[in-house]
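User: Can you help me understand a structure? I only have the sequence.
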Amino acid sequence: MSQTYLLACPVDGEDALREAAAKVDAEMCRIRDTGKVKARDRIAVLAALNIAFDASRRDPALACRNACASTQEIGEGVAGNGAAASPLPPGAEDALRALIARIDAALAADDRLL
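Assistant: Let's start by predicting it. Here is the structure, written out as tokens:
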């Protein structure tokens, strides 16, 4: 999203880091282009969640202990990855909605984020 960062990585890890950065950038641009989210840090969080969710679906060892849902399914009007989520355990959806509300409240407190 038109940002440049100087990052350290192992000598043999530059290609993997560039690939990871490109994946994050592509996901952030996709979310930004939906026009539903404007704050860069919120876009970054949503991109990270989408990438982690996709990775956990491919590799169960990376999955969270409880069932996960995409941001599209738990956040009304939030750019999600469109993947169908596995069923949530009882109370998990309410806990996720509460967490999203806390994130929204924290981000709303700083008018510089928009």
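Now, to help you interpret it: Residues 62-85 have pLDDT under 50 and may be disordered. The chain has one domain: 11-113. Let me know which part you'd like to focus on.
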